[in-house]
Amino acid sequence: MTSVATPETGFRSARRIGAIGVSEILKIGAVAARLKREGRPVIVLGAGEPDFDTPDHIKAAAEKAIRAGQTKYTTLDGTAELKAAISGKFLRENGLAYAADEITVGAGAKQVIHNAFMATLNPGDEVILAAPYWTSYADMVQIAEGVPVNVVCREENGFRLDAADLERAITPRTRWLLLNSPSNPTGSAYSQAQLQPILEVLKRHPHVWLIADDIYEHLIYDGLPFVTAAQIEPGLKNRTLTVNGVSKAYAMTGWRVGYAGGPKELIGAMAVVQSQSTTNPSSVSQAAAVEALTGPQDLLAERCAAFQRRRDLVVDALNAIDGVTCRRPEGAFYTFASCAGLIGRRTPEGTLIDSDSAFCRYLLEQHDVAVVPGSCFGLAPYFRISYAASEASLEEATGRIAKACEKLACKVLS
Ligand code: PMP
C-alpha cells in the first residue's frame, strides 16, 4: 500500500486508501452521464438496484414512524422491534435461530461487512474472495488493512468456487472466506450439494470464518431453493456471519438498512466499530424495515417472476450474437457474458478490441449502451449486464449490442 500525496495542495491520503482508486464502474457512469447530457440516447445497464419502487405499505410505515416521533437516536445496532423482525425472518426463511445479541443492523449490508472487517482484521490478515466478485469487497478488505486473496471461479464450474481451489488458498493468515449467492456479478447461486464441499473445507480449517452475503436471496429463479451456509451446516454457525438486507428484496436501496446474524462476540465487536462511525442506522428507515420484514410478502414472488422474464430475454438475445456466449444465471439481476469471441476484431474505425474494457468502451461510445467489463470484477474477458430495467429498454439495448457486434470486422488470424 502506498500513500498518495498531491504536490499542489500537500494533501496526503492514508496508506490504507492509497491503493483504492475511483472505481471503473463510476468512470463508466460518468462517461454515460456526459453522453446523455450531449443528447445521446444512452441506455445504462450498470445499476446494482431494482428499478421498482419501494412498496407503498413500507413507505406508509415510515411516514407513521415520523409522525409518532421516532426521530431520535435508537439502540446502537438496531431497535428491539427491528431485531425481533430480523430474528423472525431468519427463523421463518432460513431455519436459523439468532437472539437479539446475535443480530446487528447497519446502514446497508455494505456497512455490516465493513464493520466485520474493521472489527476482525489486523494488518496483513487475508480474506479469500471468490472472483469474479462485487468490487467493494476487495476495497473494504484493504481499508481494514487486510489482504484480499482472489480465487478464480471458472465459468465451467458455473462461476462457483471450487473446494480444492479454496483449500489451496487457505494460509495461517486467512481470517475469512466471503461467499455471495446469488452472486453479483455472475448471478450464479449455490445449491446445497454445491455448497457442501466448500463447507467441508471450512470444517477442516477452524481458524477460517465465513461471511455469507445473502443480499440477493429473494432473487432466485426456476424454483431453485435458496440455501445459506449456517442453515445447512449448523456446526459452522458459530463462525459464520449471515449478511442480508432490505435493499434488493424490497427495492429499498436508498433507505440504507442491512443486517446480519452471527456469534455474539463478533456482533459486539462490530457494534464498537459502528458506535464510533455512524451510530445507529436511520430511525425512520429501521421502522420501514420492520414493515418490510413483517408485512405482506407477496410482492417478492411477483418481482422475482418479472426479473426471471428479463433474465431470459437478455440471455437469449446475447446467445444469438456471434462472438458472445452467456450462461443462464440462477439469480440476482445480472448476466455475466463472455466476449472472448470478439477479442482480436476491429471496429469500423480500425480500433482493436483487445480486452473486455475496449469492447465496453466501444459499446458505450459508438452504440450508446453502458455495461461493465468483467475485468472490474476480477475475471476477463466478460461483461456484466444489470437487467434491473424495463423489458423495452432491455430489448432495445440487446438489439444495439447485436448491431455493434455485427459491425466488428472478423478476427484476422496471424
Ligand atoms: N452485497 C452485494 C453483493 C451487493 O451487490 C450489494 C449492493 N450492490 C451489497 C452487498 C450492499 O447492499 P446494501 O449496502 O445496499 O445493503
Automatic annotation (TrEMBL):
MF terms (GO), sorted A to Z: L-aspartate:2-oxoglutarate aminotransferase activity; pyridoxal phosphate binding
UniProt keyword Transferase present: yes
Aminotransferase class I/classII large domain residues: 41-401
InterPro entries: Aminotransferase_I/II_large, AspAT/PAT-like, NHTrfase_class1_PyrdxlP-BS, PyrdxlP-dep_Trfase, PyrdxlP-dep_Trfase_major, PyrdxlP-dep_Trfase_small
Required co-factors: pyridoxal 5'-phosphate
CDD domains with a match to the protein in the record: AAT_like (cd00609)
Keywords: Aminotransferase, Pyridoxal phosphate, Transferase
EC number of this enzyme: 2.6.1.-
PANTHER family in UniProt: ASPARTATE AMINOTRANSFERASE (PTHR46383)
Subunit structure: Homodimer.
Protein name: Aminotransferase
Organism: Phreatobacter stygius
Lineage, opening ranks: Bacteria, Pseudomonadati, Pseudomonadota, Alphaproteobacteria, Hyphomicrobiales
